[in-house]
Specification:
single chain, 242 residues, six-stranded mixed β-barrel
C-alpha cells in the first residue's frame, strides 16, 4: 500500500561547560563532586588522552531529554575554551532517587561516520485499525544506522495511516539515501497491523496445550497408582504360600 515517510535531520548542537577534576579519582572524591552539585565525568576519544571532568547535571539532563537525546552532538567547553565536540555514550543513575551520578563523553570528529541507534516514530492511525478493528504493533523501536555526525536524524518518521489489516512495514520500506547505511536486515519487520483474533490465538493455544497436558497426565498417574496397589495386595498372598 502507498505510504509516505519522513526523515528529519535535526541533530542539535548545545554547549556543556566542564571543569577538570584534580587529585584522587575514587568513590569519596566522586561523592564530593556530587555533593557540590556536579556530576563526575570523563571525556575521551579522537586519539587524545582521557580527561576526568565534572559537569552540570542540568545541562546533561536537557541533552538526554531533548529530541535528539543521547545522539546529540554538543560543544564541550573546558577551562573557558572549546576543546571538542562530543556525544554522551554512557551514563549512570542512582536507582532510588533516579539521579545522574556519572557520565562518559566521547569526542566526535565531524568528518568521520558514526554507528548509532535511532528511534522509529509512527505517524497516524492505520486504516486497518480504524475500519477493521486491528492492532498496530511496533516491533522495531530503534534501527541501527551509520552516517556522518551532522546527518544523524532525531528520529525516523513512518506514516502508517494507509496501512490495512495484515500490512507490514519492513526496514526496506524506510527512507534510504546515500547519507546513511542500515545495519538491520532489510526484511526485518518494523511495524505491522494484526487482528485481535490473531493476537489472542497464541494465548488460547498455550492454554489449550496446558489443559491437554494435564488431562493426559491424569490417567498415567491413576494407572501407576493402581499397579502399586495391586502389587501391595499380592505380597501377603505370596507370603501365605510360603
Amino acid at each position: 500500500p502507498p505510504r509516505s515517510t519522513l526523515f528529519p535531520y535535526t541533530t542539535l548542537f548545545r554547549s556543556v561547560v566542564a571543569k577538570p577534576r584534580v587529585g584522587k579519582f575514587n568513590k569519596n572524591a566522586a561523592r564530593r563532586v556530587r555533593v557540590a552539585g556536579k556530576i563526575p565525568a570523563v571525556i575521551y576519544g579522537a586519539g587524545q588522552d582521557a580527561v576526568a571532568i565534572e559537569v552540570d547535571p542540568k545541562q546533561i539532563s536537557r541533552i538526554l531529554f531533548s529530541e535528539t537525546g543521547h545522539n546529540t552532538i554538543f560543544d564541550v567547553s573546558l577551562g573557558g575554551e572549546t576543546t571538542a565536540k562530543a556525544m554522551i555514550v554512557d551514563w549512570q543513575r542512582e536507582p532510588i532517587k533516579d539521579q545522574l551520578i556519572h557520565i562518559d563523553l566521547k569526542r566526535i570528529a565531524l568528518d568521520k561516520t558514526l554507528r548509532v541507534s535511532v528511534r522509529v516514530k509512527l505517524i497516524g492511525v492505520p486504516v486497518g485499525v480504524k475500519a477493521a478493528g486491528g492492532i498496530l504493533d511496533l516491533v522495531l523501536r530503534e534501527v541501527e544506522i551509520e552516517c556522518l555526525p551532522a546527518d544523524i536524524p532525531s528520529h525516523i518518521d513512518v506514516d502508517v495511516s494507509n496501512m490495512n489489516l495484515f500490512d507490514v512495514i519492513r526496514v526496506s520500506d524506510l527512507p534510504h539515501s546515500d547519507k546513511i547505511k542500515y545495519f538491520n536486515a532489510e526484511d526485518a519487520t518494523v511495524a505491522h497491523v494484526v487482528s485481535i483474533r490473531e493476537e489472542a490465538a497464541p494465548a488460547a493455544d498455550a492454554e489449550a496445550a496446558a489443559v491437554g497436558a494435564a488431562t493426559t497426565a491424569e490417567p498415567e498417574v491413576a494407572k501407576k497408582g493402581k499397579t502399586d496397589a495391586d502389587a501391595a495386595a499380592k505380597k501377603p498372598e505370596a507370603g501365605a504360600k510360603k
